[in-house]
Specification:
The chain has 324 residues and is of the alpha/beta class. The protein is built from 10 helices and 13 strands. It has helices spanning 12-23, 54-60, 78-81, 87-107, 148-167, 193-203, 225-236, 254-265, 288-294, 302-319, and strands spanning 3-7, 27-32, 45-48, 67-70, 112-118, 170-176, 179-180, 209-213, 219-220, 223-224, 244-246, 252-253, 270-274. It starts with a strand and ends in a 5-residue tail after the last helix. Bound molecules: nicotinamide-adenine-dinucleotide.
Length: 324
């Protein structure tokens, strides 16, 4: 039986990955500070532990694994990452997790480890034009991410690559672009734009108002969780190290996404543009490299995944007694 370790298995992407690996017949160990919030984990073994502690990493990697997925990070949406208030925690905590996990895997002679980097590592100067952002993988340098979160991702990419070069570890690195779907954080300050907008639409009665941070003309692309996992497994099991974008290339403005969600909910609401953290002006996944290397790229239209996600968030809002 094949075995896998999923770090960050209590979080959004990690908890979905555990389910997928179980469906594939793996024996899976998860590790996180917490259990998944929205449904029980099917992991065969789940360690509650803090990966900033090298002893916890050593204990977690106390046996060989065929595949290790490193999703654990101190992270959140724009309201968490772009205010500047959490910079020290973001850099310190996530860097420690990556340093410790890599060391533990190396000492145990584990070869294959996947690292989830982010499009937030791309330089700000390439993302000023909302209609023409440049996120080709080879445009990462000279580096100028617009957040400390992005700088930590860049540092950790280089750390994994160094372990690959010096110690022959088979690392695989993806730069995720805005992953969304059911069972992601939808309230409390760490939620991302898709879930936050779904929540605002679900909470407001028809004719009400929803807040949009900035003018809403900033652009992004959003990738549904199922395609994120498919790309991740394809990369992990290929010979390609990366870093490579895993994202959708269906770029939309935040205003357009809000309109799409209102259409799905069949609710007409007024968009009120208010000051708020926004990140770069434009971003889109450039999928030329992933297609060239893996012969695959995400293709599902945004609206398909958004429909599933809206219905799930609306159900949570209803359970919380906050439906509009
Ligand atoms: P998430 O916050 O839902 O999951 C991260 C998990 O890591 C959480 O469950 C958290 O408890 C755990 N964690 C944090 N500190 C820990 C510690 N010290 N010890 C053990 N566990 C700890 O985030 P996610 O959306 O599932 O993202 C997973 C990975 O993908 C992260 O590395 C993130 O930076 C990266 N990523 C995500 C997106 C996205 O849109 N979701 C985009 C780009 C990159």
């Amino acid at each position: 039986m094949k075995t896998a370790l999923v770090c960050g298995a209590g979080g959004f992407i990690g908890s979905h990955m555990v389910k997928l690996l179980k469906k594939e017949g793996f024996w899976v160990r998860g590790v996180d500070l917490k259990y998944p919030e929205f449904s029980p984990t099917p992991a065969d073994d789940f360690i509650i532990g803090d990966l900033r502690d090298p002893q916890v990493c050593k204990f977690t990697v106390d046996r060989p694994f065929d595949e290790v997925y490193q999703f654990a990070a101190d992270m959140g949406g724009a309201g968490f990452v772009f205010t500047g208030e959490n910079d020290a925690d973001i850099m310190h905590n996530s860097a420690l997790i990556n340093l410790n996990m890599l060391e533990a895997c190396y000492k145990r002679n584990l070869k294959r480890i996947f690292y989830s980097s982010s499009a937030c590592m791309y330089p700000e100067y390439n993302q000023k034009d909302p209609d023409n952002p440049n996120c080709a993988e080879d445009c990462a340098y000279p580096a100028e991410p617009d957040s400390e979160y992005g700088w930590e991702k860049l540092f950790s990419e280089r750390l994994y690559l160094a372990f690959h070069r010096n110690y022959g570890m088979e690392v695989r690195i993806a730069r995720y672009h805005n992953i969304f779907g059911p069972e992601g954080i939808w309230q409390g300050g760490r939620e991302k734009a898709p879930a936050a907008l779904c929540r605002k639409v679900a909470e407001n009665p028809p004719g009400g108002e929803i807040d949009i941070w900035g003018d809403g003309n900033q652009t992004r692309s959003f990738l549904y969780i199922d395609e994120c996992l498919e790309g991740t497994l394809r990369l992990m099991r290929s010979d390609f190290v990366g870093p490579v974008n895993i994202g959708s290339d269906e770029m939309v403005t935040i205003n357009r996404m809000a309109d799409m969600i209102m259409g799905i909910a069949d609710k007409k609401l007024t968009k009120r543009h208010v000051p708020g953290p926004q990140g770069v002006r434009g971003r889109n996944s450039d999928n030329r490299l992933i297609f060239a290397q893996l012969g695959w790229k995400p293709s599902q239209p945004l609206e398909v995944g958004m429909r599933v996600t809206y219905n799930w968030v609306a159900e949570q809002v209803k359970k919380a007694g906050k439906s509009g």
